[in-house]
Design goal:
Elements (H helix, E strand, L loop, with lengths): L8 H34 L2 H32 L3 H33 L7 H26 L2 H31 L4 H33 L4
Helix pairs in contact: 1-2, 1-3, 1-4, 2-3, 3-6, 4-5, 4-6, 5-6
């Protein structure tokens, strides 16, 4: 977090610990998402199960951030930019955990489906999945840089994910219309695609929080 140095050294140390936890969470969701998409596209149930189990570590980091932030609020009674940073950190950790939930839900779909139907949906899903990966790459960079320009870029990028999702949604409806046999599998693809779209929304919300941290204004 970009804040002035404080007279109480432990306050700066606590702020740095929070920043490190958020960076670790961002790294975990970026790497976990890539593996979740691999599990989905290759129907690797074992990998999906492993990722579901690993989600617990993300929950633990979120709780660690919240405890430390609430402790700083109670003991330091921060104001101005310090207060903005702490409150935003709580919200960002919650949003990162929600991204983890989106990834976990993609993995749960792998449990229930046999494969992605061999139609144009595979190509559409790859395009959507790649845009989700791009968003998480940008997110990890943003967590480190805390840059207003990077926040604006990621916030706008959510529109790219939405466009890919809407294109895929149309193809999914067409696939269900033309073949009743593929409906169960196609529905699983639809739910997985929706998780990626929500992931993009959460990335955009984190971008808004970091913009607010820096400027005190809403994006």
């Amino acid at each position: 977090m970009h804040t002035p140095k404080h007279t109480v050294k432990s306050f700066d140390e606590d702020l740095e610990t929070v920043a490190q936890h958020l960076a670790t969470m961002a790294s975990k969701v970026r790497l976990g998402y890539g593996r979740a998409i691999t599990a989905l596209m290759t129907h690797n149930v074992a990998m999906a199960e492993e990722l579901i189990e690993q989600h617990k570590s993300l929950d633990e980091l979120q709780l660690a951030v919240e405890r430390l932030c609430f402790s700083m609020l109670a003991l330091r009674q921060p104001v101005a930019i310090d207060l903005r940073n702490i409150v935003s950190a709580i919200k960002i950790s919650s949003l990162l955990e929600r991204i983890g939930d989106d990834i976990k839900n993609i993995c749960r779909r792998v449990r229930r489906m046999k494969s992605i139907p061999k139609t144009d949906l595979q190509t559409c899903m790859r395009s959507l999945a790649e845009s989700g990966q791009d968003a998480l790459d940008q997110l990890e960079d943003l967590i480190h840089s805390r840059s207003v320009a990077d926040a604006e870029k990621l916030y706008i990028f959510d529109d790219v994910i939405d466009d890919h999702y809407m294109h895929m949604y149309s193809d999914i409806i067409e696939a269900m219309r033309t073949s009743n046999k593929t409906v169960p599998e196609v529905m699983h693809v639809l739910f997985a695609a929706k998780n990626i779209e929500r992931l993009g929304d959460n990335c955009g919300d984190i971008a808004r929080q970091i913009y607010y941290q820096n400027t005190g204004e809403k994006l």
